[in-house]
Amino acid sequence: MLVMWLLSLLPFTALLFLMIVPKWSSARAGAASWFIAAILAYAFFGADMGLIGLANCKGLLLGLYVSYLIWAGVLLYNLADDTGAIADMAEGFKALTGDELLQILLVGWTFVSFLQGIAGFGVPVAVVGPMLTSLGVQPLSAASIALLGHAWSVTFGSMATSFLTLVLVTGLNPPSLAQWSAVLLGVACVATGLLVSYMYGGTKVMVRGLPIVVAIGGAMSLTQYLLAALRSYVIASTGAGLVGCAAVGLLSRAPRFRRKGGPKVESGRFFLAFSPYLALMALSLAVSAEPVSRPLSLAISLSLPFPETRTTYGWVNVAVKSYSTISLLTHPGTLVLEAALIGYFVFRGKAMTRNGIAGRIFRKTASQCLSPTIATLCMVMTSLVMNESGMTYMLAEGVAEGAGALYPIISAFIGILGCFATGSNSGSNTMFGAFQRDTARLLGINEYVMCASQTAGGALGSMIAPAKVVVGTSVTNAAGREGEVIHRNVRYCLAIGLVTSIAAWLMALAFGGLVNR
Amino acid sequence: MALSLLLIATGPFITYYSIASGSTIFIWIGLVETAIGMLLALLKA
Description:
The structure holds two protein chains of two kinds.
Chain A: H1 2-20, H2 26-43, H3 49-82, H4 85-94, H5 100-118, H6 123-134, H7 139-150, H8 157-170, H9 174-229, H10 236-251, H11 267-272, H12 275-288, H13 290-299, E1 301-306, E2 309-310, E3 316-317, E4 320-327, H14 332-349, H15 357-388, H16 391-403, H17 407-422, H18 425-443, H19 447-460, H20 466-475, H21 482-510
Antiparallel strand pairs in A: 1-4, 2-3
Helix pairs in contact in A: 1-2, 1-16, 1-17, 2-15, 3-8, 3-14, 3-15, 5-6, 5-7, 5-8, 5-9, 5-10, 6-7, 6-20, 7-9, 7-20, 7-21, 8-18, 9-10, 9-19, 9-21, 12-14, 15-18, 16-18, 17-18, 17-19, 17-21, 18-19, 19-21
Chain B: H1 2-21, H2 24-44
Helix pairs in contact in B: 1-2
């Protein structure tokens, strides 16, 4: 039994080792992990070639769902970047207030979270890192703040890729899971705001900023929760970030924070820069309405039926009539593409586009997305081979026996570990989502709270994930000092992880006791 | 990289339709194609 448990742990440990020690890319390590999982499934877990092939196909369907979103999100960001809309947003924020802490919170906490909502995949860190250095923050601190400030918004960021991945992998009810996740991420939101203040100016500045952080953090957390409750997952982080930016904007009008002199903000151009993102919010809200979503989701949908499969050890995967249905007209990726199209025409109408923009942004998007797509497919397929051969369940069973009643405390750290290994919240959820669900079920703990804790941990892991840290250091002239940034951020990550875990444990105890749902 | 992605993204579908049609040889072709795609990712990514 112990040998089998250790074998089922091998794909995860191999992935971790290959990414951390020889520093392989997530695509390369993911491919290696897939080979290990497939060989183990065949040799030790009684899976035949048909089972492995069908598991690959299920993984591919899930991976394509996520990849479509990645490509559309990066395309929209590249459009905004190429037209100067991102630069206009940055200039506007810098000219908004004369208070340095408020500037840091605006750029390194609220704006970076807004960017995470609309772009993700390392883009927020790449954009905000240089902005923070331009505000006078030291390069290492700029990289650390950008990584820390955006972490809470990762789960519902990037068009909710990570959240939707968790839903697909666990099969849990999306509205319930979204609300539990939003509560835990709300706790993380306030904590990251406080730590951004601390990182910028130490304890004294953090204490001075406490009321501001609590007020703005409360507004962002509440917005994210409400949008999640309204099933507008795709815009939950975007909306929260936008509310945070607006709250800072309102505060900046107060005499204490108002800028005296300096450049004026051209408000028309500033708001024009947001046009594709406002269009995306409008489209997302429209599609979330039942009378609109139902006919659209039925119009063009892609899915495949799968037969029952079983291993020679008796692990059964039940037949499904339609697996991972992709409704093309309501898929978040389609909404993002529509928003990009609207944005393109708005920017073209205002003469903000340059010749050859389409070719330029498509080429850039393709080169940026190729490796993340391979990494996503490799890791999702690994995860599915492990799930369908019973390896994930065996892992969960072992951890459940070992951790017992203490499991809720470690659940968020499993999410952090997954993100550290795979470089993304989505990767962490893919790897450990089903594992957390199965462990919670075995222990009789609320599976929704544990999966919410998983994704909250996965989001927090973004601040120490090597793949993202490299982005932060390379854009702030701190290349090669990734170890210092990770060392600096790891204590904040673990501290917020502990707070989140305790909150999850209390939630599991308070709502329905330690029982399911 | 593009070839790797192409193989990884098409191999599983070949396996799927082979299982649906009962053709054993194509199950292997799909699996081998997926494995070659993964191998390319392992070597080049």
